[in-house]
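Reminder: ligand-aware prediction takes two inputs, not one.
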Amino acid sequence: MTTLVVLFLLWLVGYYLACQIWPYKACGRCQGGKHESPSGKAWRNCFRCGGSGKKRRLLARKP
Ligand SMILES: [Zn+2]
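Here is what comes back for the chain with zinc ion:
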């Protein structure tokens, strides 16, 4: 049981550090910030990421 807690804490520290170095992940709702129309010639910005195509990770610091 204690080993599990230690492993979880180690993972958490590693994840936190990784979030500081690589603070963004790809937005899962769009392709690079674009929602394409059926024709593929027009698009609108994704409402989730604001058209940037990236999302801040859980433990990343605010910009
Ligand atoms: Zn998006």
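The pocket of zinc ion is lined by residues 27, 29-30, 33, 46, 48-49, 53 (CB under 6 Å). The two ends are 37 Å apart (CA to CA). We will return to this case in the review session.
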